[in-house]
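Much of our argument rests on the idea that a fold can be written as discrete symbols. Part of our work consisted of pairing the sequence of a single chain with a tokenised description of its backbone. We regard such an encoding as a compact summary of how the chain folds. The amino acid sequence and the backbone structure tokens for this protein are reproduced below.
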Amino acid sequence: MIQDFKMTGKEFLELDSPQQRLILERVKRMEIIQKMFNELPKADQNLCNHGKYFLAANSSLCGLAANNFFRSILHVRKASLVSAMPMAVIPFLSTAAVYEVFVHDPLFSGQLNCEVCAVIRGGLVGAVVGGLYPIFLAIPLNASLAARYMSTPLPGKENLLRYWLTTAQPVFRKMSLGILVQALTGLFLATKQHGIYIKMLLQMNTSRDPEELPE
């Protein structure tokens, strides 16, 4: 029975369907890319593997700064550590994860060859997830603290949206530089990583066997 199962699996792999050929070619390409990546200088490997953490660390700083601004506006004096911890941890993890999924993984799996697309993705991740998201995250957190400790009278539901738009405007103005820095950091990181990916492709084209990498 085991032998029959092995034969069935072998026959399945040998089926000459376009979908299976595409999957096998993609897997083979990813293996070659990983092999070339391991041969890169340590500086390039560190930039690709750990560059997202620099962007994520800046996101944590944005979260802490936005948290402090809202605490000051709402006159919240208590639970400083309780509010600081999520504002540092959540933006860090979110930024690192989103950059990994939308920029790093597609790039080094061969699915994102367009330089402009990679750079735009990096800038958007930096600006939206690394800059804007921490500000929006700080609003409900500090609103709940202000309501709990009654540090500032909060409006009713009918004026809630207008109140928070007015309250958040000075925070967004103060954080505009941080959002810009995050966007530029994402652009720079994606540009550098795409350059490393192109360098790997050039090394492949000059050193590989003609039949090693599928066209």
